[in-house]
Design a protein that fits this description.
Elements lengths: L10 H10 L8 H13 L10 E3 L6 E3 L3 E2 L6 H9 L4 E3 L9 H9 L7 E5 L7 H15 L4 E6 L11 H12 L3 E8 L3 H10 L7 E5 L6 H12 L3 E5 L17 H9 L4 E4 L6 H8 L8 H14 L20 H12 L4 H9 L26 H12 L1
Parallel strand pairs: 3-4, 4-5, 5-6, 6-7, 7-8, 8-9, 9-10
Antiparallel strand pairs: 1-2
Helix pairs in contact: 1-2, 3-4, 5-6, 7-8, 9-11, 12-13, 12-14
Bound molecules: iron/sulfur cluster (SF4) (2 copies).
The site of one iron/sulfur cluster has 15 residues, from α12.
């Protein structure tokens, strides 16, 4: 439930509320209680000194832990991160039914010259004019005159990054000083898209936002290395494999270990874990400059085994084997938003982007599931779960 901040609430009250009033997806009960005690004694939150890396050919020096704002209901949580030197924030108008950019915009007040802002165009836009209008709407919502990284969202295959209307629109906006750098984002087919960016002679895109975590295969790590070598700044998302809270680990959090795993790869310039509240900000920012250790690897082994039955790599490899063209990876991503992130709105809005004939309802007309997942997911069961949750 979003945190409501009463008018008379002071900053100290808010810091406590931000910690205790929101169900943490990361900390277990004991850790929450300990952290609550700590904040009761401290006026402000002490976060570690950030570590910075260069975001590819943009040359921007960004904190290795950036702020994924997609689930953050309160601008004040983002401002605390900015105050402590976290200087990259990732948002989209799609998040929170359009409100997320406004939340980031409020957080930016007084920090605009210290922070780099990345947002995305809406997935369904097909004309240059529509894309330009969309970015101008983002500028308004963010309350800024420029966006540092404008991202072409949801590249489901490598051909989408060559869409002329998107390139025309981005180029025009850059000439007008409204955007600085161009990014691509990918969920499905990340290896193909990363390789296509590496091979793109036009060097149009400067960054790639890609799901990357300890469950990722060597093929993706290699493709990321090629893209990084070509000057693409790599931004890692879904570093926590969906934010699931498996009971196998009890109150022990796997999320620091997962974030460390992603950041041990020097080709990752910045990770943008979603942070709802101060507890999550504290936990995620604490990994900056801390190496992955043997204990972390053990935690990830247990965590990896626990999420194995439902963690989808979003590779899309199964979709060719489904005779009805069901968008299995996007459906699984919707389930991740529902079950892992526990974000009802994001799950539903993602699911509703799928054309109805390619939704999980198509499986009702199927004699028997023949779609194959090389990672061992029971696709039929996941589709049934999607129908149960999303109707
Ligand atoms: S269900 Fe399996 S094959 Fe299909 S996208 Fe997910 S991980 Fe890839
Ligand atoms: S049951 Fe399996 S093969 Fe049949 S439509 Fe659904 S995903 Fe495709």
């Amino acid at each position: 439930m979003p945190i409501a901040k009463p008018p008379e609430m002071n900053r100290r009250d808010f810091l406590k509320l931000g910690l205790m009033g929101t169900t943490s997806t990361i900390l277990g009960g004991n850790a929450l209680a300990e952290a609550a005690q700590m904040y009761a004694q401290a006026e402000t939150l002490a976060l570690p000194t950030p570590v910075y890396r260069t975001l590819g050919r943009t040359g921007l020096r960004v904190s290795v832990v950036g702020f994924g704002a997609m689930l953050t209901p309160e601008p004040e949580v983002i401002r605390v991160a900015f105050e402590h030197g976290i200087n990259y924030v990732n948002t989209s108008r799609k998040y929170m039914a359009g409100k997320n950019e406004e939340i980031v915009g409020k957080a930016l007040k007084g920090f605009r010259d210290k922070v780099y802002v990345a947002t995305k165009i809406q997935t369904e836009l097909n004309t240059t004019e529509a894309i330009v209008r969309d970015v101008e709407a983002s500028l308004k919502a963010l309350g800024t005159d420029h966006i540092d990284v404008i991202q072409l969202d949801a590249n489901t295959d490598k051909d989408r990054i060559f869409r002329p209307e998107a390139r025309e629109a981005f180029t025009r906006l850059k000439e007008q000083g409204k955007v600085r750098f161009f990014g691509a984002t990918v969920h499905k087919s990340p290896v193909d898209v990363a390789n296509a960016l590496a091979d793109d002679k036009s060097r149009f895109f400067d960054t790639l936002l890609v799901a990357y975590n300890f469950k990722s295969g060597k093929d993706l790590t290699d493709a990321i290395a090629r893209a990084a070598k070509a000057g693409i700044g790599i931004i890692a998302m879904k570093t926590q494999t969906g934010g699931y809270a498996p009971s196998a680990l009890g109150s022990l959090s796997p999320h620091q270990a997962a974030l460390k795993w992603a950041l041990q790869n020097p080709d990752i310039a910045v990770a943008v874990p979603g942070m709802r509240n101060l507890a999550e900000l504290k936990e995620d920012s604490a990994v900056m400059g801390v190496p992955l250790k043997a204990d972390d690897r053990r935690i990830l082994q247990i965590y990896g085994a626990a999420v194995q039955p439902y963690y989808c790599h979003l590779c899309g490899a199964c979709e060719g084997s489904c005779p009805h063209g069901v968008e299995i990876s996007t459906i699984n991503r919707s389930l991740m938003y529902a079950e892992g992130y526990r974000s009802h709105d994001l799950a539903l809005s993602t699911y509703r982007e799928i054309p109805p004939p390619a939704s999980a309802s198509a499986c009702l007309d199927c004699a028997g599931c023949v779609a194959q997942c090389g990672k061992g997911l029971d696709i039929s069961a996941r589709m049934e779960r999607a129908r149960h949750l999303f109707g």
